[in-house]
Write a structure and sequence with these properties.
Largest sheet: none
Mean pLDDT: 81
Order of helices and strands: HHHHH
Distance between the termini: 32 Å
Strand content: under 5%
Number of strands: 0
Helix content: 25-40%
Shape: elongated
Radius of gyration: 22 Å
Number of helices: 5
Length: about 120
């Protein structure tokens, strides 16, 4: 409309483009206030705690060379963050799940293992 570049807009208006959330394309219902995501804010997911039985599996079974990956943070986080029909309850059940999934998946490295900076939060 104005034909300005982002830098020209920031200079003229005095507001950095990334600091103001864009209006939502989804409208809230008449009796419903828009949530944070609808207002354009990024909502960070809550990190779930690693279950004690999974920690036990990593400690007991991860000591063996062939299952050492089970001790890696990327596997612990991957197994914890999966949506399970039935969450494993024992160390043996976690080992069974790990052995099944490691044939099919290679979880990504955790952000601190990749050398990336943690996201800045206000």
């Amino acid at each position: 409309m104005l034909g300005w570049t982002a830098a020209e807009f920031e200079t003229e208006v005095g507001v950095p483009l990334g600091s103001v959330p864009l209006p939502s394309t989804r409208a809230a219902g008449p009796d419903q206030a828009p949530d944070a995501q609808q207002q354009g804010w990024e909502v960070q997911p809550v990190q779930r705690p690693i279950p004690g039985s999974l920690r036990e599996a990593a400690e007991v079974f991860g000591a063996r060379a062939e299952w050492a990956e089970l001790r890696e943070g990327r596997w612990l986080r991957f197994l914890t963050d999966l949506h399970h029909r039935r969450t494993p309850q024992t160390a043996g059940e976690w080992l069974d799940l790990f052995l099944d999934l490691r044939k099919r998946f290679d979880p990504p490295a955790l952000p601190d293992q990749r050398g990336e900076e943690d996201a800045w939060t206000p």
